[in-house]
Amino acid sequence: MSDSPVHRLPPTILFIVVAALGACVACAQGAAAPTPRQLIAEAALTDDAAKKRELIGRLMGQGDPAIALLLEAWRTDVLFVYTAPDGAKVPVLLSGEKDAAGKQPATRVDTNALLTDAASAPLRLAATDLTAAEHTSSLRRAMKAVLDLADLAAPEPAKRTKAILTIGLAQDVEKLPALKARLAIETDESVKRALRESIAIAQLKDPSNETKLAALGELKELRSLASTDFITRALKEAEEAKDPVLAGGARAALRAVESHRSFVDFFGTLFRGVSLGSILLVAALGLAITFGLMRVINMAHGEMIAVGAYTTYLVQNIFATGITIPFFGFSLPIFGLNLTGAAYQWYFIAALPLSFITAALVGIGLERSVIRFLYRRPLESLLATWGVSLVMQQGLRLMFGANNVQVSSPVYLSGNWLVNDIILGWNRVFVIGFAILIVFGMWLVLTKTPLGLLIRASMQNRTMASCMGVRTERVNMLTFGLGSGLAGLAGAFLSQIGNVGPSLGQGYIIDSFMVVVVGGVGSIGGTILSAFGIGGIDQVLQQYLPYIAPGLTWVPGIGSFLQNLAQDAAVFGKILVLAGIILFLQWKPAGLFVTRSRNLED
Amino acid sequence: MITKLTSLLGAGAIALGAALGTAHAADTVKVGVLHSLSGTMAISETSLRDILLFTFDEINAKGGVLGKKIQPVVVDGASNWPLFAEKAKQLLEQDKVAVTFGCWTSVSRKSVLPVYEKNNGLLFYPVQYEGEEESKNVAYTAEAVNQQATPAVDYYLAEGKKKFYLLGSDYVYPQTTNLVLLEYLLSKGVKLENIGGGFRKDGSGKIISAGKYTPFGHMDYQQIIAEIKQFAASGDACVISTLNGDTNVPFFKEYAAAGLTAETCPVVSFSISEDEFRGLPAKQLVGQLGCWTYFQSIDTPANKKFVADFQAWLKKSNVPGLVKEGRVTCSPMVLSYVGVYLWKAAVEKAGSFDVDKVRAAYQSGLSFDGPGGRVTTQKNMHVTKNVFIGETKADGQFKIVKSFQNVYGEPWLKGKFQAK
Q1: What is the DSSP annotation of A461-482?
Q2: B71 by DSSP, 3-state: which?
Q3: Nearest-CA distance A598 → chain B (Å)
Q4: Is there a contact between A322 and A335 (Cβ–Cβ < 8 Å)?
Q5: DSSP 3-state assignment of A496?
Q6: Can you spell out the DSSP letters for A326-353?
Q7: Which residue of B223, B230, B238, B399 to mutate against A (max A Cβ within 10 Å)?
Q8: How far apart (Å, rounded) are the C-alpha atoms in residues B193 and B189?
Q9: Hey, what long-range contacts does B192-195 have (CB within 8 A, 24 or more apart)?
């Protein structure tokens, strides 16, 4: 809504434009028919929702630029209803300079003249004293239909596409000429496609069988997913009318669309599998280091993820107006930078290194205070870290409250990229890209840096490394810090996808251990493979279980139970993955990749 | 272990309540408050305890009920369903409360129901529920399915929606509600193929479950959103969501990322009220619908006074653990509030605290002008009330777009609507 060019004009210019347009309308229209302005004014006043829609509908096709302006104002709550002292109601727009009391001159919507009182003196009104004209979603849709025609010529292709599809899906035959006229001059390929699709869908309502058949052919060629319902309806009509040619055309179109749908489903599932795999990988990578390399059964791994997520939340608030945290009886005020717009949107990028550092510091603190005493006692480290995890959860609850906190998505992560009808959400694309980056970064650190060499040496044989002069104490600390930092980074990502609450970590700890164990404890490559494997299988099962379900009624006893697969695919997918993992570990108890060591302890 | 600890704490609370109770037994009447103050449900249910304590203070300040001050006995169900039954037993058998206000989840209500029936107690239940139940020992001030779900469908139909996708958390309330909605949609002429989410049939081909279900705490909605996106591709589609609690966050995040909007495919959620927005990103839900018998944004003097009084009470109250900032009022809270006043009216009409007499008075049709308008009790222990449909605004409040006046609460809906 806010990207409408009209809306960005300063109020004074807006006012001049309104005045000029109004004058032009007055000269063009006769006195008999109500002008668009009068229609809008009447619609703003009536309480009857159906009447409102009808009045707005009459604006359709009227080439008056005031319509777009007024409807846009209405939709954005700046078209007001003024109640005169005598009780008469007048819809008005406010424009011009605000005085000290916040009052502005008001323009009548119906005549575009200045609003005056009984003595004909111009009235000044404040927006806060007026009520905005009401609108519901159905009315906004009616307005949209009017604006859509105007939007057919909008400069942004996305806006044009949306307007075109709206007309097409409504099968609005009356607007076909407008679409066809646009098709002749349209240059953008994707908009052209939308135009052809919309025209064809609308033409399915055409009385002539030849046009219908041509339209079906067009839809078949376009493989338009949006047209499924319309083709099905056309097929039914053709079958009822006993028209074999038309029915054949409809069936062929439906087949083409369905084959396209299975293509979209397949690659969509693939993408979703990779995206789920990336999330599992990002969440498990830290554990692959603390548990995999260091053999510390770190039950507080999930809380390290939560620390990262809360850091993101804090950074978001610092970029905005600041936040006050109750800190064990004290209130800890944190200042805000009061950034808005684009600068604020960068908060997430700033949060990434910060969440890594915060979690790494917490991890180092944990290693120094608890874990370093327990390196040779895995069971005790399990219990101790579990205790730490409970303490950390409660700490987060005390500081940030038991409720989930809100982390908003920056604009560059909220949209999607549509490739051949496959939706690629930006947040998911980002997670996949970043997972690759983190893995690459970690490979660099572990194999190409002196620190990596020391880490590998210490993890393989601590005593021997120590004998060779490696300060294993320090290496342990840094390695645990690295693992925790990676968990923190995972938290920053997960804040974009799910909830941020004190028990956030609990939701990921089991998955993380699962990924590391299946991959083979100690093998980073195995962790990567198992994350993508588990993610992929989970999504494939979710996608295709419902197709299997209806065929299972014959299974004696549990047939009707198995039909749950269609409704509860999300749960059954997960159950089957878990069952599969149990079987897999029976076969390969050490996971996908077995790390061998010459250490006598192993 | 945690359960034991909380039950100990709960026992402590009762002991305290009992000790206070005996101090002035003559001029007080004991009233039970049975909500989860710890565990997963605490976030929602603590608000109901708060509003109940506020209501008791309000009534006590005006002289109490039949000249007796209300003495609350607050116990903690700890989000533990069997514990709810134990606590109910304690309230009825040890504390001998005149009435109980409590429960949120249907499973907790089902858990305490036998206790109330055995002891002939009286429970006021304030949270929207699935119906198919009618006990003389429970006063359902809650929204029945026809006071929330079916009006929402009516609204959608009037908006010209033709395709309905049913989605919910996997437990009794969404399952039952969706089944009733399926019958309702079919009776309104919506075709079976235009109802999305999936079905399950029994051996004879009769549909025994409708809609898509995810477990509590589910995080990965990619697949379901992709399905909704395809379902909505042909236009005129909408989603009816009974998703509970924080699963709404990943759902709506994924929903927005897929390019779905309230204008192309709106979602009406039956489990998101103003109070839930304390933990949900309202910005991502702007334009989505809610349907309740009360919204904080109702523009009447009675509601404005109620909201202001509650805020004033929060400021001066010294209840331990009370959250004072960012508090709102919502439908379950108001139905708790209304419940107390309806009970008071019934007691005053009966002239006694005796459950049988109070019930008889309650069933005779009492009215109370609450913050959401007039409510009237019915013979079937439910209440007639106004239903509102609202659009979510960025500040977590609702803009009311439609209201239905005096809707009769009907618990028995399964099989009531016949397909055309």
Answers
A1: -HHHHHHTT--HHHHHHHHHHH
A2: strand
A3: 42
A4: yes
A5: coil
A6: EETTEEEEE------HHHHHTHHHHHHH
A7: B223
A8: 12
A9: B194/B162, B194/B163, B194/B164, B195/B163, B195/B164, B195/B165, B195/B166
Nearest to residue B373, comparing CAs of B404, B333, B411? B404
- What are the average pLDDT values for consecutive 10-residue runs of chain A, which has 602 residues? 43 46 44 76 82 80 73 82 82 79 81 80 78 79 77 77 81 78 82 86 82 85 84 85 85 89 90 92 90 87 94 90 74 78 85 95 94 86 92 89 81 81 86 92 91 87 86 90 94 88 87 90 88 92 79 69 73 87 89 69 48
C-alpha span between B375 and B352 (Å, rounded): 22
Length reported for chain A: 602
> What span, in angstroms and rounded, lies between the C-alpha atoms of A231 and A205?
11
- Contact present, A498 and A566 (Cβ < 8 Å): no
The pLDDT of residue A328: 65
Q: Which amino acid is at A393?
A: Q
At A179, which amino acid appears? L
CA distance B70 to B54: 11
Instruction: Determine the distance from the C-alpha atom of residue B144 to the mean position of all C-alpha atoms in its chain, rounded to a whole number.
Output: 9
Does residue A223 contact residue A194 with C-beta atoms inside 8 Å?
A: no
Calculate the CA dihedral of residues B255, B259, B265, B266 and round it to 10 degrees: 50
Nearest-CA distance A147 → chain B (Å): 14
| pLDDT tens per residue, range A310-344 | 999 999 988 888 787 776 667 777 787 777 777 88
- CA A285 and chain centroid, separation: 25
pLDDT score of A322: 79
pLDDT score recorded for residue A61:
61
Q: What is the mean pLDDT of each run of 10 residues along chain B (420 residues)?
A: 47 47 67 89 88 96 93 92 94 95 93 95 94 93 92 91 92 91 93 88 81 86 90 90 85 87 90 84 85 93 95 90 85 95 95 94 94 94 94 90 92 81
Residue with tokens 């554990």: A287
3-state secondary structure of A299: coil
Task: State whether residue B57 sits within 8 Å of chain A by CB.
Answer: no
Please tell me which of the candidates B213, B279, B287 has its beta carbon nearest to residue A403. B279
Q: Which residues of A41-75 are buried (b: 16+ CB within 10 A; e: fewer)?
A: bbbbbeeebeebbebbebbeebebbbbbbbbbbbb
List Cβ<8 Å contacts ≥24 apart for A377-380: A378/A295, A378/A296, A378/A297
A429 CB-side CA count, 13 A? 16
Q: Which chain A residues contact residue B262 at CB under 8 A?
A: 137
What's the pLDDT score for residue A563? 67
Query: Under an 8 A CB cutoff, do B198 and A228 touch?
Result: no
CA distances from B238 to A430, B166, B232, B360, B388 (A): 29, 9, 7, 43, 18
pLDDT value of residue A14: 44
ipTM of the complex model: 0.77
3-state SS, residue A427: helix
Burial of B4 (0-12, 13-18, 19+ CB in 10 A): exposed
Spatial distance between the Cα atoms of A144 and B155, rounded to a whole number of angstroms: 19
Per the CB < 8 A criterion, the answer to whether A458 and A472 are in contact is: yes
Q: Which helix (H) or strand (E) holds A428?
A: helix A426-448
Q: How far is B269 from chain A (nearest CA, A)?
A: 16
Whether the CB-CB separation of A536 and B179 falls below 8 Å is answered with no
Question: Are the beta carbons of B257 and A427 separated by less than 8 Å?
Answer: yes
pLDDT at B297: 93
B234 touches chain A (CB under 8 A): yes
Decide: A392 and A300 in contact? Cβ < 8 Å: yes
Any idea what the Cα angle at residue A239 is, between residues A235 and A242, rounded to 5°?
A: 140
